[in-house]
Design a protein that fits this description.
- With 429 residues, the chain is an alpha/beta fold.
- The chain is built from 14 helices and 16 strands.
- Helix 5 runs parallel beside helix 6.
- 48% of the residues are buried.
Length: 429
């Protein structure tokens, strides 16, 4: 395959290329919108098999990307997101099979009721049309996004980061193979072949061809897309996630959850970045947790009260409460009470994911009701805020917006509803 970034500006017109991609996607969306569930599922299973069969090719392509990433001095969090291994390739295939097993929302009719005129009014779930997805680093997004868009009847245009170009093209080859094998248009999923940043600018302005944009990546990318897009955007800017350990917490649960939420994986948007502790339990919890974090190489940055309880803890500055580290760094704050924890989350949270550890039912209910985030948890790690863990098969991204879709965006988040009317000759008087 010829990678577009290798062509000179003289023989490659980004505008013309993106317009062609858009036209092909719009045409494919019509065919995909009327495809039946069995055809879509057959394609998903074929793509999963193709990915497993191409494991060695995917590893070779990814090794090229990793080598280039190292040469360009990408940080550890980005390299972690970029890396493929046998387990991650297997997870991509498994995610596609799980999507195939999910109920197809397209065509579902709900809320049918008779009106006094005799007509029936209801709602039908339909695809959005063409979804443009702009993302960085993670090659698995290519498979996840393609699978979710395919099952929900949407054509998709995928623009991955230049750092994952070889990995994404290798996965794209598997996707085209699966689509063709199921008799669906190969252009139903198109992975942009150029790393030219101008392609992003073109994509977010193609209102004629694209119905929604989903950016996945760093805050800079998402801010740029939200600022420049002429198309509706499903997004979250960053994940400053909190775990609050309440005075009524089970200490064993609290230690396990807080440790997992930070250390299970550092470079993800649902990783805990700030630990909040009720003052009455802070000493006993930190006596257990701090050595565990330190053994893992996690740098602790605390408020004065937290620093007084843990030797060697660095003093936090104001920016620490608003930072998504994506690294082994954790901000720690001791709060006076439950209401102070809520206030901290309101002031510094990113509306992504926040958790409380408590055995107090009333506190748990208040936390669920009053914390205004897309995922709110009781006695569970923030690392569960994920489409796969929520039973969505995979996710196309996390939305912290409040309109249309919120939280991990799966199949239903990639559809909308239209009103339908069933009559028998009625006319309005």
């Amino acid at each position: 395959m010829v990678i577009r970034q290798q062509q000179s500006a003289a023989d490659f017109d980004v505008h013309e290329y993106m317009q062609r991609i858009g036209r092909q996607a719009r045409t494919a969306s019509i065919a995909l919108g009327r495809a039946d569930t069995s055809n879509k599922d057959r394609a998903l299973l074929a793509i999963a098999t193709a990915i497993e069969t191409a494991e060695q090719n995917l590893l070779v392509a990814n090794a090229r990307d990793m080598e280039q990433g190292g040469a360009h001095e990408l940080d550890e969090a980005l390299l972690d997101r970029l890396a493929l291994n046998r387990d991650r390739i297997g997870a991509m295939a498994e995610g596609l099979r799980q999507i195939a097993a999910l109920r197809d929302p397209v065509g579902e009719i709900t809320d049918l009721n008779f009106r006094p005129s005799g007509i029936q009014v209801g709602k039908m779930r339909v695809p959005l049309g063409v979804v443009g997805i702009i993302y960085e680093s993670r090659p698995n997004v290519t498979a996840d996004a393609a699978g979710l868009c395919l099952k929900s009847g949407n054509a998709t245009i995928l623009r991955g980061g230049s750092e994952a170009l070889h990995s994404n093209q290798a996965i794209a080859h598997c996707i085209r193979s699966g689509l063709a094998g199921a008799g669906l248009p190969e252009n139903a999923v198109q992975v942009i072949e150029t790393s030219d940043r101008a392609a992003v600018g073109e994509l977010v302005r193609m209102q004629e061809y694209v119905d929604v944009i989903v950016p996945r990546g760093g805050k800079g990318l998402i801010e740029r897309v939200a600022r420049e897009s002429l198309i509706p955007v499903i997004k979250h800017l960053h994940g400053v996630c909190h775990v609050y350990i309440d005075e009524h917490a089970d200490h064993d649960k609290a230690v396990a959850i807080a440790f997992n939420a930070k250390t299970q994986r550092y470079g993800t948007c649902n990783t805990m970045e700030t630990l909040l502790l009720a003052r009455s339990v802070a000493k006993s919890i930190l006596e257990r947790l701090a050595p565990m974090y330190q053994e893992q190489g996690v740098e602790l940055r605390g408020c004065p009260s937290a620093c007084s309880l843990v030797g060697g803890m660095k003093a936090a500055v104001e920016d620490d409460w608003d930072t998504e580290y994506l690294a082994p760094i954790l901000a720690v704050r001791v709060v006076d009470d439950f209401d102070a924890a809520l206030q901290h989350i309101r002031e510094h949270g990113s509306n992504h994911t926040d958790a409380i550890v408590t055995e107090d039912y009333t506190r748990a209910r208040r936390f669920l009701r009053e914390v205004d985030s897309s995922s709110v948890m009781v006695n569970a790690s923030t690392r569960f805020a994920d489409g796969f863990e929520y039973g969505l098969g995979a996710e196309i991204g996390i939305s912290t917006d409040k309109i249309h879709a919120r939280g991990p965006v799966g199949l239903e988040g990639l559809t909308s509803q239209k009103f339908i009317v069933l009559g028998d000759g009625q006319i309005r008087q």
